Amino acid sequence: MKTNKDENTEEQILNAAKNVFQVKGMDGARMQEIADKAGINKAMLHYYYRSKQLLFEAVFKTAFSLLAPQLNTILNDDSSIEDKIRNFTSNYITFISKHPYLPNFIIQELNRNPDFILKMKNNLGFPNLEKFKKQVKTEVEKGILKPISAEQLFINILALNIFPFVARPLIMAFTNTNDKAYKQLIENRKTEVADFIINSIKNT
Amino acid sequence: MKTNKDENTEEQILNAAKNVFQVKGMDGARMQEIADKAGINKAMLHYYYRSKQLLFEAVFKTAFSLLAPQLNTILNDDSSIEDKIRNFTSNYITFISKHPYLPNFIIQELNRNPDFILKMKNNLGFPNLEKFKKQVKTEVEKGILKPISAEQLFINILALNIFPFVARPLIMAFTNTNDKAYKQLIENRKTEVADFIINSIKNT
DNA sequence: ATATTTGCTAACCATATGGTTAAACCATCT
DNA sequence: AGATGGTTTAACCATATGGTTAGCAAATAT
């Protein structure tokens, strides 16, 4: 019996859980707080999701499945490496700006429990580097790009895009910026990061 | 009355606390586990450090004061930007390889409690960008470097060096590498990251 | 030698927390 | 109307957890 109201409750729980888990992590999150945010009784959490662990996994999976497609953009379309980098950098920073807790949440929880990613790997749509590797190799051979391994390039792209969100408090302290200035700094990166990468790898 | 034995106990606690806190974080750490690892009674933790919070702060401060001097290397010596980047990249990756939990610990806990860094900012030896900024400006004006803001360059350097340690489980999954292969990949970055950055910013 | 301070432990405490239960509620079907 | 079955709640439970206390042990001072 899936009335509207039922679906709402389940979704409300997931939403509240998303907020709490992403901000406080598995260990810091409290079932009571999730229930309060969802505006329901704590017992409902268990009615719908059985346990904290399962509720957490539901949140983690939706978070991860939000992030993965973004990566596939750069891996699986047919444009040139340069275009891919420009597109990805701009899109990704825009995307994360709307979900600023996402990368940190995923990275943190994977460090807490590295085996967790094995469950994700089986999912359809898990990022796969094969096409990207071939493409980098081809463009290097053609002399479009300077020699670089696809893995290292991929890591660099991720690092330059994701790190400013993950290490935000640290960087804000080092660079002496407030929220507004940091937002601007991130905004600038939408094009600067791509330029930075392409400057480095493109043959002239 | 600081006998050897006393100092040993206090240090043993700090050491055990370091291990537990760095792996499990403030929320995931248990006082009992710290006591067990230190081989002493739980009450001793409170005898020496009063509360979990204070013990945690002691750990955090030592961790942070281990990391900060590394950053000052790149900021405050007199070599050229290029040399700084080469030195820093190699040294930093070597250093972190010996303390792999450090960056993630600091980043995670700062996200949990951003105000925490204010306490650090007052410490002597807190990284300061002023000299680095001037130097970048000078080298850009001289035409040695392509135009880039010192802040963005600094963020890029940090990102490329630190991110592979922070996001290790994620990257291992994406690139399909095991522990050994990942270690090699990191090893290669000691020079490749510097090349990557310098390629990007140096005028030819 | 004795008193005193310091280091340490076992037992205990109050509270927080994830989870359960029994009963109430409410919509739908007969 | 009354039975049925999914949904929701208040009250409850067992355990984990940070923290405290009273007293012992050992070193230091007198």
Verbal overview:
Chains A, B: InterPro entries: Homeodomain-like_sf (IPR009057), HTH-type_TetR-like_transc_reg (IPR050109), HTH_TetR (IPR001647), Tet_transcr_reg_TetR-rel_C_sf (IPR036271). Chains A, B: GO terms for molecular function: DNA binding. Chains A, B: Keywords: DNA-binding. Chains A, B: It comes from Psychroserpens burtonensis. Chains A, B: This is TetR/AcrR family transcriptional regulator. 2 copies of one chain form a homodimer. Chain A contains 11 helices and no strands. Chain A folds into 2 domains: 1-50, Arc Repressor Mutant, subunit A (Orthogonal Bundle); 60-201, Tetracycline Repressor, domain 2, CATH 1.10.357. Chain A is 79% helix and 0% strand. In chain A, helix 1 packs across helix 6, helix 4 (52-76) runs antiparallel to helix 5 and helix 4 packs across helix 6 (102-112). Chain A is globular and about 65 Å long. Mean pLDDT of chain A is 94; it is low at 1-6. Chain A is mainly alpha-helical and 204 residues long. Chain A has helices at residues 4-28, 31-38, 42-49, 52-76, 81-98, 102-112, 116-121, 130-141, 150-166, 168-175, 179-201. At the A-B interface, helix 1, helix 6, helix 7, helix 9 and helix 10 of A face helix 1, helix 6, helix 7, helix 9 and helix 10 of B. The structure holds a DNA duplex (30 and 30 nucleotides).
